[in-house]
Records
---
Amino acid sequence: MSQFRIAIVGAGPAGYFAAQALQNSETEDRTFAIDMIERLPTPWGLVRSGVAPDHPKIKTVSKVFEKIATAPNFRLFANVELGSDISMSDLTSRYDAVIVATGSSLGRKLGIPGEELRGSLSAADFVPWYNGHPDFANLEVPLDCDTAVVIGAGNVAMDVARMLALDPHELDTTDTADHAIAALKNSSIRRVILCARRGAEHAAFTSPELRELPKLEHTNVLMSKTEVESAILRAGDEPEKDVKNNLGAMELITQMEPTSHERTLEFEFLLAPLEIHGTDRVEEIVLGVNRVEDGKIVATGQTRTIKCGLVISAIGYSAESIDGIPFSSGKVNNNEGRVPDSNVYVVGWAKRGPSGVIGTNKSDAAEVIKLLVEDLPAAPKENGDVSDLVNQHVVITQSDWEKINAAEVAAGEPLGKPRVKAVFREDLLKHAGYLS
Ligand code: NAP
């Protein structure tokens, strides 16, 4: 019987599904000892710091993660950072295989003048801010303006726009970070405009997200009937299923009766960001008006200016590079998950780019693990693990994490919330019993 040691870097969905695929590949002759390394004191990645707090059902996948984590031969080394606490070569020399599951955490830039002004943010910062990620707790989010513009037509743009446009009291029973609920309750924003550069038929939203918009209790959702009707015509008689579902959901939105709510969420299509203007902060955004010609986007040469104090771009992500790993185009260089000339593999967004829903990572990881198993040497390395490298460091183990989790859930119970997130590292370590 051989036991191979595998290190997984990153405790998000891709990392857990890779661990699960390894556990499912065990045989009578071959088992895996899995060490999962995570830089934050908390696991679950985007399930904790990405998924919108008003989407609690999506977060129930964490039950699957906990089952994986409590199986034999699985260890969590959280609060351990690759690059500062340990190096890639520490891992590749000790483990039979290393799986990179570090995701894509950097927001893509618009690359337009004025993007650096105060009040211009990336969703890659704003989303972890409202979700209580320790690194973003002190982000400055100026909400003292009437209008916010969100750039992008994907589900992240939709989450961001919805979070800004809903009545923050609707967040009282969610696990939104306390600092974000307080800031949103204080917010002057009453008009949120989501701008897509292409037509409604090209939007990257998924239809369940569109279908929930009419259920917002305190927000008027506005979408142009003319644009949706034009998009339906442009999409033709046999649109792809996703396009058909999206346009169907959009049609329902256009049929909604306007209400007297002071909060509005407006969808604008065929507007591409050109410039952000302002002296000390964002004051307006200039967008180029596009039209669709033979299925392609063409600039009309006209522009539209929207006065606003906040611009949030949600136009995709790229992966943060790791020393010792080849990167290009915002991803780890890989061949179906194999990193060339190494015992390193990559899964999830770091492998394929920022696409797909959480479940996509399950099949993606299973395919990569199949290759990893094929490549395994005849016998394990037996060259140690990371324990000796991190013994001077506070490592959050699975049982420490269970203490943090239990403390957060217990704090939420009397308030009717799934949990109250500890945001600062010190508070997380306190929950785990390391600091008094
Ligand atoms: P996405 O789905 O790829 O959408 C990115 C959007 O940004 C697209 O509409 C794109 O428009 C637009 N864009 C890109 N560059 C632009 C530019 N320079 N100017 C203006 N617009 C630009 O990415 P995402 O929203 O970040 O989501 C990432 C993945 O996570 C997706 O697979 C998404 O479905 C998933 N996700 C799922 C959920 C959920 O299930 N509830 C929630 C959040 C995220 P073009 O199409 O014109 O390029």
---
Amino acid sequence: MRTGIATVCLSGTLKEKMQACAIAGFDGIEIFEQDLVTTALSPEDVRKMAADLGLGLDLYQPFRDFDGVTPDLLKANLKRAEAKFNLMERLGMDTILVCSNVATATIDDDGLRAEQLDELARLAGDHGVKVAYEALAWGKYVNDYEHAYRLVEMVDHPNLGTCLDSFHILSRDWDTAPIEDMNAEKIFFVQVADAPQLTMDVLSWSRHYRVFPGEGQFELAKFMGHVVRAGYTGPVSLEVFNDVFRQSDTERTAVDAMRSLIWLEEQSAKWLSGSPAETGAGTQGNNRRRYPMELATLPKVNEPAGFNFAEVKADDTAQLEKLLGQLGFEFNGRHRTKDVQLWTMGQARVIINEQAASHAEPAIAALGFDVDSPVIASARAQQLKAPVVARRVQADEEVFQGIAAPDSTEIFLCQGSPDGTAAWTQEFGEGVGHPEAGRAAVIDHVNLAQPWQHFDEAVLFYTSALALEPQPFAEVPSPGGLVRSQVMQTGNKAVRLVLNLAPAQQAEKARKTYQEHIAFAVDDLVATARSARDRGLEFLQIPANYYEDLDARFDLEPGFLATLKELNLLYDRDADGEFLHFYTATVGSVFFEMAERRGSYDGYGAPNAPVRHAVQYDSLHRV
Ligand code: MG
Ligand code: MG
């Protein structure tokens, strides 16, 4: 698959964008007109720089408001087009994007449109230029990709084809299957963009909220599958207008973009091999048809089986040790060779890492996940351009495969074991035996704060590298603003990761002020809370108003309500079951949550989150 990206996706100057695209490994780029108009580089300079960087200049865009116009306007439009064709010659470019008219079209007549597009195609032919005609989702008369293609067929000129843009097609919910029946020679270009499902006018949705594939909710693998089946072999190019990406680090966004295409390529191959046309009668050999476009695949991973450990880094560990001890964790000793402690409760393992943590407030630094094969999972992550993190190990110690998540949390890919034990724990103290019977505690979920500029990148990272599934996001009110909360989880819910986009005011100092937590699930929360209280645990203090509201909502048995109130427990109930939980005070930027899931309750106590945020905000601002 030939990869591409429009320069409009990135921040920076044209030069910086081109360099970043080359570093990220793109085959080619689309030159967005504004980027050329505003650069000091001559078209010849741009041409040379692209050649030196090994980047194809695949598409010049956009040319607007051409078709369906009065004769006078047509004349002016052809003159405008000729100027661009001359410019493209200097750039050494041969394909231009022409969008369906949104502003100046006054005549809704396919016959006339075809005539005018034919004139454009003939002029383009004289200049060796190919015109890729695209239906904008908000085009005045042409806003459906099949309509644009019909016009291309009517004209039937070798210099006129169509451009398929996933956003314009999927935002309108057009059926993508008819793409398969298109003549591949008439598809001049394919642009891909994902987007969250939003209810708003399609123009604003397109200009501000497009995201890279895997960061939104469009069915892009299916779209691409149809494109591949049509026999298309040209560039698959990202065209993503996004307010955040356009102000984020150029090189980093380019890498995020490239990751999305690598992932989309794999997902498309997967969609093709699983779709009925491939597996039905008539296919031969290994049951896979071959298409002119070759799709690369990646090392395969299954979703992780569970959390292996969570690691908190701290210089002064006294408060953390106290908290964990009060919660009922056992200290399992220090590592044989490193300044690292292991604390466990059942199968929940917490590492306190004092290495290289000078002056660091306690913060979540790493998460371990149980995978089938750490080596394969690591190979996959690296092919998806995840940065590798290395840990110093001695000869007889377990080597962890580690990668860095976008928020710089270190992710370790660990060898899972069916009984839930971890071999590396033998490197600590006297070694840990099997979890005691009845101590079924596990890490239930981990809640990480994401810097605003890396939030979408994080969703794609965990989706593509770890096979976690993004759930519909929620917005939680807090005194500092709305907190966007994105749950990423495995099908069996053994791994639940909650990514929180902190309000800008709090995210300013990112991980310092915004709080993150590790939640543990236990069998009997009331008993756990009582023991913790007896050991002197400082609970997050829940206001009395909360319990009055709780009683009004759920009509709880008075004794039960009194227990909740006495222990600062929070409660939720839905059709699936019940959820009891409590929070500790915060140390540095980390706090802990203990939870009990009753029945098949699947949430996180979302109705209680605003209470938690408000109390934490209050205590933070009291100091
Ligand atoms: Mg487009
Ligand atoms: Mg939680």
